[in-house]
């Protein structure tokens, strides 16, 4: 099983872009480090995660989605530079799906590939229309089939999943945030992580004059925040 990842904001960086991208690659590796047979690959257009067990898709999807800096991701099929192989795969997948309208979205990153994007759209579109009887709808299709021709392979995918965007955690330094136990604190931490900050939480409490309810709440919130940055330091400051 392969998952391909795209980023938007990082692509706007200039000479320091590789530094930002490497942070994202490292964060993806960290988020998926315990998954059996996991491999992370990095190309000019994508970052990818390869996992042996198909049943791990829900876990991989959640962890990739929770990694800051990712605009969107896809479960992809990696094929050789052969349009016949692409058509065969699409035929297999289309026969397992029910849809009334569709769109082919072909993108040719490698200009050495002999078939242009428009021609791929027409050829594959005619094939799917004949096979399924569905109509072409470029504006709001029930099924969008994406074909990305890279320099060494072709990626085909059928669903797109959104990420949170922003910057990878770690590129904007380390900050501390107040953790009160309400909704405002974790939301503020989330937005700082989205801008690339690694966040440590500080909770002021009045134990032992009161019970440990607020401490327990702060710990629970810190565990949720950890989903988005891998680990979180929580500092408990005793007011009493």
Describe this structure in words.
With 240 residues, the protein is an alpha/beta fold. 32% of the residues lie in helices and 26% in strands. It contains 6 helices and 12 strands. It has helices at residues 17-31, 57-65, 83-94, 117-132, 184-194, 213-226; strands at residues 2-6, 39-42, 47-50, 72-79, 101-108, 135-136, 143-149, 154-157, 161-162, 174-178, 198-205, 234-238. Strands 1, 2, 3, 4, 5, 6, 7, 8 and 9 form a 9-stranded mixed sheet that branches. The longest helix has 16 residues, at 117-132. The protein is elongated, with a radius of gyration of 22 Å. The chain starts with a strand and ends with a strand. The mean pLDDT is 93.
Keywords, please?
nine-stranded mixed sheet, three-stranded parallel sheet, 12 strands, alpha/beta, 240 residues
Q: Unreliable segments (pLDDT under 50, ≥5 consecutive)? A: none
Shape: elongated
Q: What is the mean predicted local confidence, pLDDT? A: 93
| Subunit organisation of the chains | single chain
Spatial separation of the terminal alpha carbons? 53 Å
What is the number of beta strands?
Answer: 12
In what range is the share of β-strand residues?
25-35%
Helix content: 25-40%
Number of helices: 6
Q: Over all CA atoms, what is the radius of gyration? A: 22 Å
What is the ordering of alpha helices and beta strands?
EHEEHEHEHEEEEEHEHE
Biggest pleated-sheet summary? 9 strands, mixed
Structural class of the helices, strands and pairings?
A: alpha/beta
């Amino acid at each position: 099983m392969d998952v391909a990842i795209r980023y938007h904001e990082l692509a706007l960086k200039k000479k320091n872009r590789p530094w930002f991208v490497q942070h994202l690659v490292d964060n993806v590796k960290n988020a998926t480090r315990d998954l059996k047979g996991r491999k992370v690959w990095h190309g000019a257009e994508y970052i990818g995660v390869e996992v042996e067990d198909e049943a791990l898709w829900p876990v991989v999807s959640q962890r990739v989605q929770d990694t800051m800096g990712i605009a969107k991701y896809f479960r992809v099929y990696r094929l050789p530079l052969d349009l016949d192989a692409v058509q065969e795969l699409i035929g297999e997948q289309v026969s397992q799906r029910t849809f009334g309208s569709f769109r082919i979205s072909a993108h040719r990153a490698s200009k050495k590939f002999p078939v242009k994007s428009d021609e791929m759209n027409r050829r594959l579109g005619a094939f799917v229309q004949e096979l399924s009887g569905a109509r072409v709808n470029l504006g709001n299709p029930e099924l969008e089939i994406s074909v990305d021709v890279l320099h060494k392979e072709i990626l085909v995918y059928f669903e797109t999943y959104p990420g949170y965007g922003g910057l990878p955690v770690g590129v904007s330094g380390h900050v501390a945030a107040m953790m009160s136990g309400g909704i405002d604190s974790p939301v503020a931490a989330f937005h700082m992580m989205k801008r690339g900050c690694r966040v440590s939480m500080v909770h002021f409490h009045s134990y032992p004059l009161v019970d440990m309810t607020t401490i327990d709440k702060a710990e629970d919130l810190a565990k949720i925040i950890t989903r988005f940055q891998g680990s979180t330091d929580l500092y408990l400051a005793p007011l009493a």
